[in-house]
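hey m, so remember when u said the tokens were messed up on ur end? i reran from scratch. heres the input so u can diff it against urs
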Amino acid sequence: MKVYIVGEVGAEHNIIKSVHKTREGALKAWNKHRLYLLNDAKRSLKASKNDKDMYKKMVRNLSCKDPEKIDNGPWETPYIRIHEVKQ
């Protein structure tokens, strides 16, 4: 049986956010988390007096809607991983 793991990886962390039976459920959860990170990056960009280039890169990277292609460098990157569970 396959399960789909939705998580977030960063420079110093790897967090599992949820586990799903279907790819569709995982995609929905992945996109919801991606949008949360994207909105956070947009807020930080507006509030920042420094590091504007960094936040612009984060906004551009997190705008990717494909979990296979998204790459947010050393910053928080949402992912979907497939694992086989033996019964």
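this time it looks ok to me. Residues 36 and 62 are 10 Å apart (CA to CA). if urs says something different then somethings off w ur setup not the seq
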